[in-house]
């Protein structure tokens, strides 16, 4: 109570004296110290106190006089007084520019004010004065003062040309005086530069060099997590990106410790990982999440780190997810899934030397099992789903929800209870007009389709109506330009593929998707200009073939058509560098698999022994579909569908469904699959459910007149190689 009265008394005195305190002028140091003290007391105040409004009013009125005084005589303020004042403004959120968006990396406190617009203008002008004045004397600022200055400007959302020059100057000082910066100053300064998108490589390299294997134990978890988060956000990757991948990369192809220590960023990531593994219990939930996110975001696989953290979270007496925020939970799961998905890049890069025999969907899941352990990865995602439901999905932002369902689908793990809650939450938000980004819509639909999560058809219909509403142009009609403001073309392809998987083709939605992907004028160059891309990715082109065929058969009244001559001229130019994580459906949409496994050969031989003539990997191309079946796909020949084992004369095919054809059902509250056809071929079998791509491929082949038999891999393997049992089993299938 005395504190509140003192703040109120001081504020009243300054207001009555027009900035003077009973006729006396404050010195800059006295004003700066007062502001600093008020912010410190405010930051330690308990939530929901009855005197909040009175105290906030007093703090705001005093800080207004601090800001006005700085503008009048900024040259009289020493560096420490400048930095303390900026720190005070930002700590209480005085004049915060919310138009820059809330940075989810830190929670923001906003002091209550009766004139938010006026305060925003006052602080804007004050910071502009400070930025110009401080830039010329940054060399006089101590490291902590530079840190407070950068942190304050960034946290207040002040983004101007003068601010940019100021932050560049702070980065230069960090580069020149690295060893003057304490651990806390390093982490927070780099966080500020990264958040403000001031990507000075020299500054980041200099900061990272402090977090080395020799000195890492002097850094606190927050300082470590801030640093690697900043490096990943700024896009500064380790030179030795495969240094820690003990699962996939042979030891002979991984760098030595000496090589790791020769690159400051590689060593920084190595040092932070070593500490996170040594003492994960010391890291707060957000700090642990930020470390994992940084590794996955920058494209660095570290199986040992992720295994240690997984066990720390879900082992007996583990931390669990009870303290995680929705963003923390979503980003943690995203990080684990991304680690496994990065295996595809390793396979592409290293080829046959990779210690993994599978590719595509199966490679991603197998990698997660090899990295973490199959039981541990399933337990992690079960506990996370339970934690998310308990927290309440209404507390998830759209991005949190999108990241979370993407993580489950990427690993092929379906928690039916969580996905049903997610479905209900999306429907609720659509009715309440909570806006979704195009990427969020694409991620959510792709996830449901990939996992064969079997959403209610109303979800597709409601999303269709929403997409139509946000893609309409000025004249009320969706065109290429209006669609490009909401979606990338890859995202549109994901949505179209998802519709084909679930077998639902809302007319207005499908027309919007085709308009956005290939336009209306058969002009690939024009579409590249409108969407600011380099053309359609190869997986998008293949996706459109599948969607076109499915729509021709299942929704012929729509009369959808790809442009004449497609895909000539529509693909990406050679040498185009794809963005990290650009292609969501690359690993899930292909129905052309031309690799022959040992199991396929064994099954083929068994069918031959019982008199069923067959060939391995029969391929159906687009010309055959056009000539033999009458469906008008583009004229350019394209291998399109493959059948593992085929009797071409009888049009009977056998699909040997390996692990990559299934999702794992990981909760006990699931309901049985309602997609049961062909004598129960697609009924859930234990914890296995056929995935979306397999379901769509089966429908397409059936439409083309093929009788497709599905052979789950575990049923054949359970026969133990006994030829008589194998022959009888294959006979029963026929």
Number of helices, counting only DSSP H or I runs of 4 residues or more? 32
Structural class, by secondary structure, is mainly alpha
Mean pLDDT: 89
Sheet with most strands? 4 strands, mixed
Shape: elongated
Evaluate the radius of gyration: 30 Å
Biggest β-sheet: strands ordered side by side in the sheet: 2-3-4-7
Helix content: 55-70%
Multimeric organization: single chain
Unreliable residue stretches? 101-106, 577-583, 672-679
Give the termini distance in whole angstroms: 85 Å
Q: Write down how many β-strands occur, each being a DSSP E stretch of 2 or more residues.
A: 7
Strand content: 5-15%
How would you describe the overall organization of this protein?
The chain has 734 residues and is mainly alpha-helical. It is 57% helix and 5% strand. It has helices at residues 2-16, 28-43, 52-73, 79-92, 116-135, 143-155, 161-176, 183-195, 201-210, 221-234, 257-261, 264-278, 285-298, 303-314, 326-341, 343-350, 360-372, 374-391, 398-411, 416-431, 438-450, 457-471, 480-484, 489-502, 507-518, 524-531, 538-554, 598-609, 622-629, 692-703, 713-717, 723-733, and strands at residues 413-414, 615-621, 639-647, 652-657, 662-665, 688-690, 707-712. The strands form two sheets. Strands 2-3-4-7 form a four-stranded mixed beta sheet, sandwiched between helices.
Short précis:
This protein is mainly α.
Brief descriptors of the model:
3-stranded mixed beta sheet, about 725 residues, about 5% strand, 32 helices, mainly alpha, elongated, 7 strands, single chain
